[in-house]
Write a structure and sequence with these properties.
Helices cover 33% and strands 26% of the residues. By secondary structure, it is an alpha/beta fold. Strands 5-2-1-11-24-23 form a six-stranded mixed beta sheet. A five-stranded parallel beta sheet has the order 13-20-14-15-16. The chain has a three-stranded antiparallel beta sheet with strand order 6-7-10, with no helix packed on it. α1 packs parallel to α10 (339-357). The two termini are 38 Å apart.
Length: 442
């Protein structure tokens, strides 16, 4: 059904409430929405937002999701935009309508019917999902970390595995509590480091029949010749050395051929036994974007956009973040799928859509690469800072890198909530860390 609207104002529809989409909706609501110059509508298939780079902490059980979750309905109320729940499934460019599937609750009951939302300006920011490259067994046997629900589900699985091993009649079996993490990019490395600590803390809560040094083993599997292949070689080597020191078994030049219920088979025939498998290798845009409504897409279903972030075949439709292939002329490729890119693009679009409503020409977006940072939990933080800020490429580790890593998230929170609330929330989290357990048993 089409959603009726007698509102004559410019209709801005944003699909996807990830880091970029929610920031853009908040900024536009605080400006165009507040001044009555446009109606801003955010559509997302979930009720709340969690910053995606935090998912590994949820999976490991080291983050209190409730303290970092943003409720879309409340955010919309306080920042003058509308939130509508549902998953985008189609697009009618002639009628300028977004098609949204019915939303059902956990019991299978329909909450909202199939709907269509009219737009004058459409922004697609639906992010990315895991790319298993057609590897057999991934869908059936591997956990993925695409959203908070996935991360919470994995955390429950690993906690239940520990409780099961403790309660069973016989001793812990070989590989019963082994975890194979496929992909040694930022997500895989961060998850391995965080799990090393949190699983031991879970066992320390009284599961004394489990010997963490003997029974628990983490395997990190990477097809490239080193971990963190996107970072400088020195940082990769330092990270691998730290992981091995923690007892993580690192497999490089190891391409996965199949995932089974009891572990992983590599292309060279080796088998890695594991009770739990996590797929953290590769990304692609959601399947429904492939050639949607005749728009140009690439081989991983990303919408191809111009430097203005407008799609190549429709100037009324914008795309940004992980779901967009945005040109990066300085490198001769496309902007990498990073949270900093989505943040920059949201800031850029917030100003450019205002210019669009005024009939002014659109300005091109230019990506500023400030480098990459990877958290290794309580053990370290590493990364490289780039650009005019440091006059080149500066490799950083330790406390300074940790502060930079935390600042990325604070920038996101500041956009959504403003300085007073972020300051109070940060103080509250610091206090709660001293009074409640660090590991969450979801």
């Amino acid at each position: 059904m089409a959603v009726p609207s007698a509102d004559a104002r410019h209709q801005i529809v944003i699909v996807g409430g990830g880091a970029g989409g929610l920031e853009l909706a908040t900024r536009l609501g605080d400006t165009l929405g507040k001044r009555g110059q446009a109606t801003v509508t955010l559509i997302d298939k979930t009720r709340s937002h969690v910053w995606k780079p935090k998912l590994h902490e949820i999976a490991a059980g080291s983050m209190d999701t409730g303290a970092h979750e943003v409720d879309y309905l409340a955010q919309a109320h306080w920042h003058r935009f509308r939130y509508r729940i549902g998953e985008m499934t189609g697009l009618d460019r002639e009628r300028r309508e977004v098609e949204v599937a019915p939303f059902t609750d956990d019991e299978g009951r329909e909450v909202t019917p199939r709907r269509r939302f009219r737009y004058d300006t459409l922004v697609i920011a639906v992010g990315s999902q895991s790319n298993d490259f057609g590897t057999p067994g991934v869908a059936e046997h591997a956990s993925k970390l695409e959203c908070a629900a996935d991360a919470q589900r994995f955390n429950r699985r690993i906690v239940n595995a520990c409780i099961r091993a403790h309660a069973q009649a016989g001793p812990v079996r070989d590989s019963q509590l082994h975890v194979a993490i496929i992909g040694a990019g930022a997500t895989g490395v961060e998850l391995a480091a965080e799990l090393h600590r949190t699983v031991r803390q879970v066992v320390g809560y009284g599961l004394d029949r489990i010997d963490p040094d003997k029974d628990i083993r983490l395997h990190l599997i990477e097809a490239a010749d080193r971990v963190l292949p996107a970072l400088p070689a020195r940082l990769s080597a330092a990270t691998e050395q730290l992981l091995r020191r923690l007892g993580v078994v690192v497999h490089t030049k190891a391409r996965v051929a199949e995932v089974a219920a009891d572990g992983v088979r590599l292309a060279d025939g080796r088998r890695i036994a594991a009770g739990l498998v996590v797929w953290a290798a590769g990304i692609k845009a959601p399947e429904f974007l492939k050639d949607i409504a005749g728009l140009e897409t690439n081989r991983i279903h990303q919408l191809v956009v111009q430097p203005t972030l407008q799609t190549t075949r429709d100037p009324d439709i914008f795309a940004f973040g992980d779901c967009a292939a945005c040109p990066w002329p300085q490198k001769g490729g496309v902007v990498p799928p990073r949270a900093q890119a989505a943040h920059q693009q949201a800031v850029h679009l917030a100003g450019q859509i205002g210019r669009r409503l005024q009939g002014k020409p659109m300005r091109a977006y230019r990506y500023r690469d400030f480098g990459s940072l990877v958290s290794l939990g309580e053990f370290s933080t590493i990364g490289n800072m780039m650009g005019a800020l440091v006059g080149g490429n500066l490799l950083i580790e330790g406390m300074f890198a940790r502060l930079m890593y935390e600042s990325l998230y604070k920038m996101h929170e500041l956009t959504l909530h403003g300085l007073p609330k972020v300051t109070l929330d940060t103080l509250a989290r610091l206090i709660s860390r001293r009074t409640v357990p660090r590991v969450k048993l979801h």
